[in-house]
Amino acid sequence: MSIWRKLDTLFRASAQEPVAKLVDANGIRIFEQELRDAEQAIARSKRELACLMAEKTRLARDNEHLRATIDKREHQVTEALEKNEEELALELANLIAEDEPLLERQQQQHDKLQQQENRLRKQLRDSGRALKHFHSELRLARANRHAEQVNRQLRGHARGLSSHMEDLNQSVSRIQARQAEAEDIEAALTELDREQEDETLDSKLKAAGISNGKSSGEQVLARIRSKPSADDRE
């Protein structure tokens, strides 16, 4: 039974892998949408805070009016007592007795609204600072993504450039080889032309009976024979 549970766990974990990869691949897009959601939530909170503040202001005006009414009736009670108008004074006192608890409840409600306003204001300030921080993080994430894309492009360009340089080196080598071959052929042709010119000149000199200044083997042998021997010199 334990093995089946482990297999079930493995299957559930495997099912989560594509989801996790999808989330990782779209992390910046998700982050951007989360920022937009947070901004909308802050805007709604501001609206709620504005409504709360308006309600608190209205309640404060009601309390002020009710407090002024109570003060006025207290003065009226004092005047009625001074004029021995006991029934009128009692009637005014009953009205005051009805208004005072209402004023107390409204003041408590006003205080609660003030506390809620303070909490919401703090939350909005903290959220605003956090949102600025997250926007900075988003800019950094975008910059890093752009840098990664540029690096990948540069690596591709570098590989392409290296391939181009290799092609250029090969082309230069082939051109230099062909030039060297052409120079060798030209040198050989020049040498052949010179030899041919020399042979033509020798033929012309020989036909004219003019020595070309070159010694043949027979001439060298005749010169050696004509030299006196050692015995003749003695």
Description:
- The mean pLDDT is 79.
- α2 (27-82) packs antiparallel against α3 (86-207).
- The chain is built from five helices and no strands.
- It is rod-shaped, with a radius of gyration of 58 Å.
- With 234 residues, the chain is mainly alpha-helical.
Structural class: mainly alpha
The total strand number stands at: 0
The CATH class, by name, is Mainly Alpha
Q: CA-to-CA gap between the ends?
A: 134 Å
CATH architecture: Orthogonal Bundle
- What is the overall number of helices? 5
Largest sheet: none
- Helix content bin: over 70%
The low-pLDDT segments are none
Number of domain units:
1
Strand proportion:
under 5%
Order of helices and strands: HHHHH
Radius of gyration in whole Å, from Cα?
58 Å
CATH-derived topology: Helix Hairpins
Family: Belongs to the PspA/Vipp/IM30 family.
Keywords: Coiled coil
Pfam family, one: PspA_IM30
InterPro entries: PspA_VIPP1
Descriptors:
234 residues; Helix Hairpins; 5 helices
Structure in a nutshell:
This is PspA/IM30 family protein. With 234 residues, the protein is mainly alpha-helical. It is 92% helix and 0% strand.
Task: Describe the secondary-structure layout.
Blueprint: H1 2-25, H2 27-82, H3 86-207, H4 217-226, H5 230-233
Helix pairs in contact: 2-3
Coiled coil: 28-126
Region (Disordered): 192-234
InterPro entries: PspA_VIPP1 (IPR007157)
